[in-house]
Write a structure and sequence with these properties.
684 residues; mainly beta; Jelly Rolls; 24-stranded parallel sheet; 13-stranded parallel sheet; 2 helices; 3% helix; disordered N terminus; signal; Right-handed parallel beta-helix repeat-containing protein; TAT_signal; Pectin_lyas_fold; Pectin_lyase_fold/virulence
Length: 684
């Protein structure tokens, strides 16, 4: 680009030069055919056209000059020399707008722009092919918005917008709210380099209306959109969202990428990003609480107006894919969310989402402003959601790290760091189909966090829960208060759970009354129930020998079965000895053992769940006794079968007892109970 000054331009121009035409040559006679015609802009590189705006001129004159420059340039680049220009409203239609603002150029609004609705719109281009370079505008809280493009194309590079919007005028039906760049029905949008700060919106105690809307960048039913290298901070108002991407058409076609953004929110930033419709690839986004962020009170980490940091907020078709980003949502109720289905979905991958460790305690921003105390969430998907997922991400803090309630949700490969109430809440009162929860590592640090249970899964069919691990992080104090790692609570649930691991003292998976088959779950006990310490009778009367407690629900499902083996010895004396076998409260076998020999005995008990009616169990019990050397024929052989009703939602005791005369007349040596359908026991 050529270098020039206004003085050089004026010196070179002829006295009769047309306004805005660079170094226009005097009128010439007709040029013979074949003779080269002199260039009318010989002092400057092709395409450069200096603006006729003047720092000393009025806002109205500079607005008129801007319009005239664009028209006269006829597609060539208009260059605005350094200086501070007051500019009134600029309306452009069916033009090629190609303007470069040189470093040191600043636009200020004319006082006439302090108005609501179209009168407060600073620049408005309709069906224009717009290219802006280096636009710097300080609204001084006078205009309602800065640049609007309807139709055509829009490209802006290295843009700075400050202090748009106001709070002293009342909105009306023509108000669009406070906007930095609004593109509506634009074919292609490219914004590369945008810095915005301190946009204000009016507070009228009515949400989701235009008067209180505040957006730095709003894309409405455009087509191709690329936004990158953005920094936004500050501001205040209701419905204050830094980004708003909106496509309400029956089949939204707006799509694009947003990348390399730094968003600094305060307690007035309702959302950093709001999506409604379209397909978006969002990456390398960084959200932080700004220096001016203040929590609403000392009881919470949440700001006064803050809702969801990054939010799919409309029942409109489309996908938000957020990747490789860092979202510090400490000041928000929710980090990343899908709050209004069912057509949209949100996919989060390779992200870090950070939240506070305290509940959201505040008066609701919306009327009637009732006080609420709710839990914060890192990733949230409503029951109307379909196909949302979070994977390979870090979710740190929050009351509930991940809440998914829709169909075909996935929570895969994440690191969940120090959740306070649940690391996972899945499902709702509405039945849903398919949930995958796999490969997640849950780190627990805070004493008392996730007390009783760490997660719950409700009302899903086709559940796949596998390879999840609970890790107690060593420290001065270790959090060891939780009883259940993964709790499947609904009786209608179906699916599998396998290889989920929890430390000693914590149940890895509790499947409850569900039809979720649980395999190879590592918890406090990895083996079948095993007792090896000898237990003998004590004198006269009936005494318990070895006892095997089948955990609750393990004999609740049709076909669940166990086999218990009890072995023992008898003393070589003449005392009477009686062995009994119990299934729960039911006595299933009574047999006298042989006096006068050093005997050995074995009981095998098989119990199978056949819940035609609740808790119905069928059993087969077999007793063999021989002399201890095993050299002779059995001296006692018994088999018994039958049915018993037990409460299978509680532990069921399988045991042997002995009634004899002297201590140790009958001794039980070993007891072992195995599951016969391939499942390890799940301890509740």
């Amino acid at each position: 680009m050529s270098t020039f000054t206004r003085r050089a331009l004026v010196t070179a121009a002829t006295a009769g030069a047309a306004a805005g035409v660079v170094a226009t040559a005097p009128a010439a006679a007709a040029t013979p055919i074949g003779t080269a015609r002199p260039s009318p802009r010989r002092l400057f590189s092709a395409g450069e056209f200096e603006s006729t705006m003047d720092p000393a001129a009025s806002g109205a004159d500079n607005a008129a000059a801007f319009v005239a420059d664009v028209a006269a340039a006829d597609g060539r680049q208009v260059v605005v020399a350094p200086g501070t220009y007051t500019v009134a409203q600029v309306i452009l239609t069916d033009q090629v707008v190609n303007v470069r603002f040189m470093p040191g150029t600043l636009l200020l609004p004319d006082a006439s722009l302090h108005a609501v609705g179209p009168a407060g719109r600073w620049f408005h281009a309709t069906n224009c092919d717009t290219r802006l370079y280096g636009l710097t505008a300080d609204g001084q809280h006078l205009p309602e918005d800065c640049w609007r493009s309807d139709g055509g194309e829009f490209r802006a590079y290295d843009t700075t917008m400050l202090n748009m919007g106001f709070e002293d005028l009342v909105g009306n039906s023509t108000s669009l709210g406070t906007l930095g760049i609004l593109c509506k029905s634009v074919e292609e949008v490219i914004i590369d380099g945008y810095a915005g700060s301190e946009f204000w919106g009016r507070k009228d105690d009515v949400y989701a209306n235009q008067a209180g809307k505040v957006n730095h960048l709003m894309m409405y039913e455009c087509e191709r959109v690329a936004i990158r290298n953005v920094t936004i901070s500050g501001g205040r108002g209701e419905d204050n969202d830094f980004f708003h991407l909106l496509d309400l058409r029956p089949v939204p076609t707006m799509h694009g990428t947003i990348e390399s953004c730094h968003l600094y929110y305060n307690g007035q930033t309702r959302r950093c990003m709001k999506f409604q419709g379209g397909n978006w690839d969002v990456r390398d986004v960084h959200c932080y609480p700004a220096a001016d962020f203040e929590a609403v009170s000392a009881e919470t980490d949440i700001g006064e107006q803050n809702l969801n940091c990054i939010d799919w907020a409309g029942s409109v078709e489309g996908t938000l894919r957020l990747s490789d980003s860092y979202v510090d949502a400490t000041g928000y109720v929710v980090g990343v969310s899908h709050t209004f289905g069912p057509l949209g979905r949100v996919i989060v991958e390779n992200c870090t989402i950070v939240g506070g460790r305290r509940l959201a305690k505040r008066n609701n921003p919306e009327p009637p402003h009732a006080y609420s105390e709710i839990q914060t969430m890192g990733f949230f998907a409503i029951p109307q959601d379909n196909d949302s997922e979070i994977r390979d991400s870090v979710i740190k803090g929050f009351s509930r790290s991940v809440v998914v309630q829709g169909n075909r949700n996935r929570v895969v490969g994440n690191t969940i760091d120090d959740p306070q109430i649940f690391w996972l809440q899945a499902g709702s009162s509405t039945a849903k189909d398919f949930l995958e929860v796999s490969g997640n590592k849950v780190l627990t640090r805070t004493p008392g966090a996730m007390a009783t249970r760490c997660s719950r899964i409700d009302n899903y069919t086709n559940v796949e829960v596998y390879d999840n691990t609970l890790i107690r992080v060593p420290g001065t104090v270790v959090n060891d208060t939780h009883g259940v790692f993964i709790d499947i609570t609904n009786g209608g649930a179906t699916g599998i759970a396998t290889n989920n691991r929890a430390p000693a003292g914590t149940v890895s998976v509790r499947s409850g009354a569900s039809n979720v088959a649980v395999y190879q779950n590592q918890g406090q006990l990895l083996r079948p129930l095993l007792t090896t310490g000898p237990v003998g009778n004590g004198g006269t009367g009936e005494d318990n020998l070895q006892i095997q407690a089948i955990p609750a629900y393990n004999l609740h499902r049709l076909g669940s079965a166990v086999r218990s083996t009890f072995t023992g010895t008898t003393a070589n004396n003449a005392n009477a000895k009686t062995l009994r076998v119990y299934v729960g409260t039911t006595l299933v076998l009574t047999a006298p053992l042989t006096p006068g020999q050093a005997g050995g005995w074995e009981v095998q008990l098989v119990v199978i769940a056949v819940p035609v009616v609740g808790g119905e169990l069928k059993y087969t019990v077999k007793l063999l006794e021989c002399d201890s050397a095993g050299a002779g024929a059995p001296t006692v052989a018994r088999v018994a079968t039958g049915t018993t009703i037990q409460v299978t939602t509680q532990p069921i005791i399988l045991k042997t007892t002995a009634e004899a005369v002297a201590n140790g007349d009958v001794v039980s040596q070993v007891a072992v109970t195995e599951s016969l359908d391939g499942r390890h026991f799940i301890f509740s």
